Amino acid sequence: MQYDEELLQEIEDNVDLLEYVKDYYDLTKKGDDYFTNCPLHVDVTPSLSFTPSKNKYYCFSCGKGGGIISFLVNFEHLPFDDAVAKAARIAGKDLSKMCKSETYRFLNNLKRNRSIHSEPVKHEILDESEMNAYEYGRVDEWLDEGIHQDMIDKFGVKIDRWANRIVYPVRDIYGRLINIKGRTRYPNYKQLKLMKYINYRKIGCMDYFQSLDITLPFVKEKGEIIIFESVKSVMKAYQWGYKNCASAEKHTLTEEQIRLLIKLHVDVVLAFDSDINYWSNEVKNNIDLLKRFTNVFIIDDRNGLLGGAESKNSPVDIDLDTWQILYESKRKII
Fold this sequence. Notes:
The protein is of the alpha+beta class. The protein is built from twelve helices and 14 strands.
């Protein structure tokens, strides 16, 4: 069984531990505490103490301590589930209300922690006319990478001629426009000290995946979502028939993105670029958390088909055959 920690604490708070044990042990009061011989070991000098102000017990010899549930486990030798059930009866609590899935507890704790620390910036819903400032056109850079013009148009990619950027809409899962993202077209952007990618508005809470508003029906149909690092990779996979994909726009996920993935109830396939180490702390922490709730797979280029880490290639950057080999050999993380 999985139990909500707050309700477990509520049970412990509603059981007077001293009142429960006084019929079973000869207790001697010393100051504010009560002592008796600990039955878990030879205890010549009484070492087992009960502190009414804390509603806790502690043995100064063997180190056992805790509340009523721990006491029932250690001293009445009950399995944990039985100890919880007995403690709930003593407290007069409905045990059925305590049983919560791990998913529920994670989402509940995330919501509580977020409210404790700071409320994330909410997205401004932009008018669709915001995209009218830019025009459709040939995006030669992406055409050269094998992305078809019909895909470029389908994903709303346009050109900001004034700033010389490729731009595309950022939408939430409901398809509402929440930002506009731009990629510079200057090949020497580093020398010009320009950022390669920029968001035209404040990002706010990163609780979305790029293009999921388009691909969501296919994600649900397949029961799987493939997470890439860029919208370009999504467009390539989509045109090859792998429509159940989206872009995280980076290689680490926020808690809000993880929360969204959990709510989708689908398998997760991480298809990050070849320079990403899945066992680095940040990425591994994402994986460890996700795999508690769903099946997690990684596309790991163990045979160097993408040209190694220095190439920084996406799993779809070489050709369809290479992508199919990598996808079919994806590894499940246990």
